[in-house]
What we know:
- By secondary structure, the chain is of the alpha/beta class.
- It contains 15 helices and 14 strands.
- It folds into 2 domains: 234 residues, Alkaline Phosphatase, subunit A (3-Layer(aba) Sandwich); 148 residues, no CATH class.
- A hairpin with a 2-residue loop joins β3 and β4.
- The radius of gyration is 22 Å and the shape is globular.
Amino acid sequence: MKSLLIICDGMGDRLTDGRTPLEAAKTPNMDLLAERGITGIMDTVRTGIRPGSDTAHLSIFGYNPFELYTGRGPFEAAGAGIELEKGDIACRCNFASMENGRITDRRAGREEEGLDQLAKEVEGITIKGVKLIFKRGQGHRAVLVIRGKNLSPHITSTDPEKIGVPPSKSMPIDGRKESRNTAEILNEFTKRAESILSDHIANKERIRNRKLPANVILCRGTGVNPYLKPFEERYGIKGACISATTLITGVCRSVGMDAIEVKGANGHTDSNIGAKAKAAITALKKYDFVFLHIKGTDEASHDGNFNAKREFIERIDSEVIAPILNEVKDTTVVLTADHSTPINIRQHSADPVPIAILGDVRTDPVKRFTERHCAKGDIGRICGINLMDRIMDLSNRAKLFGA
Ligand SMILES: [Zn+2]
């Protein structure tokens, strides 16, 4: 049997006026999945731990984030299409604006004019014999990869995460000389980038057009590329992902999944999720394991917008779950979330997420897909790191332990 894992980012919630967005939404198809399947709740990383999207996905794919996670940077870089080598240090960056040595806007006014040109200018700088790879991402974002010897991810950011101050000086977090060396390289990069960008014609043009200059690059989320044993080697299955979120695509690429791009998919609530579902159904013909990531639920949650979240859940129900129930056969289908993002706190929480699995399962009496209904299901309460084993078992691909 093949398997299809659907993760709706931040879909779990707490109560607003006595109910969660999932409870308030009309979701006949998710409910049918729960009724025909087996249900439960899941702590994606560990009970009581508030998961980031990256650590949650690592855990759900069966990779222990407590051992392997060093920072968001490497996954952003992989998501942006940089082939990482073992030991690469990567961080996520912003083009920002500075005046008289102080940051005036951390996102350079979110204006993209000239950024491609500016990014090219700071590409491929070499400092102390170490190569720096810089690549522009979406909007004002970019990634920086430091490749060479004597490097360490244990350094502080240059992004002060506030305005009115100069860029922070990167400092070593531990006493190792590799950390000191890496911090020095990052500080030198910041200085050189600033001098290249400030006088650049593209910035003069931005200023002429009454836009803020993109004259400084701020870095954070530094991490080392962990070598993750590829999915295919670990589970003996070929995997593909469909995600419009760079970070999540990066996690998937890091575990060796192929990334499938879908037109009109953008990670927002107006994303073309119907096309993503279609792509997932098609991908199941070629791959043993398909992962479908939908981001809009998390976005509505961070905005604190209950109705937007409820409406988007209803869209997932009709545009994603309905066609999957109709068209996907002989496949273990899993519907869940990577964490809860409660509307009332607008950030990730450790509340367990609902999960339903359809396939060769013993059904339970649960007939609705919500946090509180699924809590009564037969899966009980599981940890994300055990999910792939469940999927492999239910797909009859698990190896026997013992004789
Ligand atoms: Zn998430």
